[in-house]
Amino acid sequence: FLFFFKFAIKIFYRKLLQTKGIEMRFRIKFSLKGNRQTLPLNYRYPVSSWIYKVLASADKEFTNILHNHGYKLNDGKTFKLFTFSNLQFPRNTWKLIPKSDRISVWSRNAYLQVSFLLPEQYEKFVSGLFCDQKVRIADEISGIDAEISQIEAMKTVLPETKTQIIRSLTPIVLGITEKDKKHEQYASPLLAEYKELFINNLLQKHEVSGKTLEEKKDIDFKVKELHRNKSGKPKTELQTIKAHTQQQTKIKGWYYDFELTAPDELIKTGLSAGFGSMNSLGFGFCEIINDSKYHK
């Protein structure tokens, strides 16, 4: 009996991942004790690992499919269709520790948005998994402890126009293969090929989520403005994954505002699963903006 039960669960989750996905975004509030704790600056991998751990608390088969297989194209390329924002702390409750890869935190609250592309009927199921969770976000050296005190479902309402202005809240990552380079390089938004890379990546995500587009020729993408740091240079982020281990790697992404002309369902795919690559590590988390400077 146990064998057939596990087999039925396995089939159930495979069908879940074959179901057409919709946007599912949550805002999570964490409670901290207020004492000083030290968060690694490279916290994206620990947060991603924690999200997988939460999903595993429901059923390991579901998490294994999401982690090892994700949504798969015919050519074998897979996408894990979720992403998350930067951790947010109230003003004057944190600071970067000079000459280190650490953040000193003494806040009593923290916030994180997590977005999935999963069937709508599983919204309460997924949000329930995160309720009352204890969290440790840490690497090999230090981390912070917190508890989830609130989780709120969020809905994105697109303005009634086919062209949307979108802002990256976490870096957008895209790779490009160059003839003289052994490994894939991280593409700058200023590259001539960037538009094609961006649109193809988004269309592939849409395809693996079980959706189809009747018309693709009118899709357009344009970088409106690169975000700048204090020195005026384009704002990028070089995040170390699995920091302080033998497996550590570095990922580079860019912050910018962009204009996307596409059907609503394709735009929502990007808002749910993330734009660009490496989304399950918290890259490509974006939001619709209504900045007057772009609508003159």
The total of helices stands at 6
Low-confidence stretches: 1-22
Report on the biggest sheet: 5 strands, antiparallel
- Mean pLDDT across all amino acids: 84
Question: Any overview of this molecule?
Answer:
The protein is α+β, with helices and mostly antiparallel strands. The chain has helices spanning 2-18, 44-56, 60-69, 123-130, 194-208, 264-273, and strands spanning 22-31, 37-40, 71-72, 78-79, 82-84, 94-96, 102-105, 109-118, 134-138, 143-154, 163-168, 175-176, 185-186, 220-226, 236-241, 249-254, 256-261, 286-288. It has a 5-stranded antiparallel β-sheet. Strands 14-17-11-18 form a 4-stranded antiparallel β-sheet, with helices on one face. The chain has a 3-stranded antiparallel β-sheet with strand order 2-7-6, with no helix packed on it. The relative contact order is 0.20. Mean pLDDT is 84; it is low at 1-22.
